[in-house]
Structures are given as structure tokens and as C-alpha cells.
Amino acid sequence: MARSDVAGPGSRVRRLLACAGSFAACLALVGMPVAAAPGDVERSMVEDHNDVLGLMDVAEARYVHEWGQPPDWHVRTHGTWRPIEIWDRGFIWIELDTRYGDEADFSVLLRADRSRMVGTLFRITPDAGSPDVRVADVTIWRRSADSVSVTLPLRHLVFGEARTTFRWWVVASFVGDACPATCVDDVPDDPAFAASEDAPGWPPASVAALG
Is residue 186 part of a domain? Predict the structure, then answer.
């Protein structure tokens, strides 16, 4: 979904506003199943149209979880880009709903540090006046000039007692000549259609295999 503003859930709005200026400010404020079987690989994919200006127009996001390993997320954009081109201007968040309610409880921030990409996991605080909590740095890499990938051990997350699944979606933003007011891409367009994955221990036979 293409947007030229930052209207939306409060926690995400303050992160977008902060990161649109600089990463220093960001630190201060910061599916659909394809296959799943124990012993196999679980994959989900969400696709998005070429519908937003700037370099952070997401084409697809994939979740890949090889049993016994931490899961990976792969985000591909419609165009190619270099880290230096999005430094302090382009950001991708993988939002994770693991506890209660419909809002994200954790967020993985993918950003450029000059010529390289880095990733950080944050725990989102419900109080709009409080900073999000930095949990851990995460492994990040690029497979192509139009993509970025991240590995996230699920042990870093906190799950609600009654949660047998968790949801994820992607938010990307970019500020530039074509996006002076910050272009935002929500993937999927409606979070109600966010991808859903098994929470750790579900199904029960997988509890020892999850990363």
C-alpha cells in the first residue's frame, strides 16, 4: 500500500517520524502459508504491487524456517539499491505480533550504516512517550541488489501463554526527492491479512526443533 504520510498505529508512527530524520533519533524512539511440516521447511510469502515512490517499494516478503534453525525473513523490492543510497533515508521493519491484541510487540529494524546493512530487534513499548527497548542485534545479509535478509532466533521474543501462532508484516519507508513527506509501504496493505506462523512449541512435536 502506497502512502505519502505516516498515519497509522502510534508506535509505528513515532518510529517512522524518528527514523525519517536520522538513525540517532530512531534509536531514541524507536501470509499465507506455502508449506509446513515437522522436519521440513516452513515458508510464507506476502506479495505487494509496484505502488510506492522511492527505493523502498516492497515486491515480496518471505518467511523461511528450516526446522532446527532460526527462521529467516527475505524482503525484496521492486528496484535495486545500494546501502549508501538509503543511509538515514530508507528503513524496513518486520513487525511481529506475539502477545496480546492486534498491534506489533516486537520489531526488527533493517537499515543502512553507510555502505553496509545492519539489523536490530526492538521490543515495542505501548506507551507512546517511552522509547522502544533494544533487545539484540541480528544477522543480516543481501542475496541481491534488490533484497535484504535477516535471521531472527525466536528465543529473543516473548510469546503470550495462549498463543499457538504469531503474526508478521512489513513496513518500509523512504525519504528522498520523490518522497519529501516520507513514502510508506505496508505489506500486506491490511494487517488483518498478515502472515501467521507456528509459535514455539506448536505443534508440540516441534518444541525441541525451533531456533
Answer: yes
Backbone dihedral angles phi then psi of residue 18, each to the nearest 5 degrees: -70, -45
pLDDT per position as a tens digit, 112-126: 999 999 999 999 998
Give yes or no for a contact between 27 and 1, defined as CB atoms under 8 angstroms apart: no
Report in angstroms the alpha-carbon separations of 159 from 61, 101, 103, 198.
Answer: 22, 12, 13, 11
Question: How far apart, in whole angstroms, are the C-alpha atoms of residue 169 and residue 107?
Answer: 10
Residue-range definition of the domain harbouring residue 139:
2-205
Other beta carbons within 10 angstroms of residue 151's beta carbon come to: 17
- Rounded-to-integer distance, Cα 146 and Cα 10, Å: 29
Burial 11-33 (b: 16+ CB within 10 A, else e): bbebbbebbbeebebbbebbbee
Using the predicted structure, report yes or no on whether residue 39 has a pLDDT greater than 70: no
pTM for the structure as a whole: 0.81
Report the sign of the C-alpha dihedral through residues 48, 56, 192, 150, in that order. Answer: positive
Q: Give the number of domains in the chain.
A: 1
Residue 210 lies in a domain: no
**Residue 211 domain-assigned (yes or no):** no
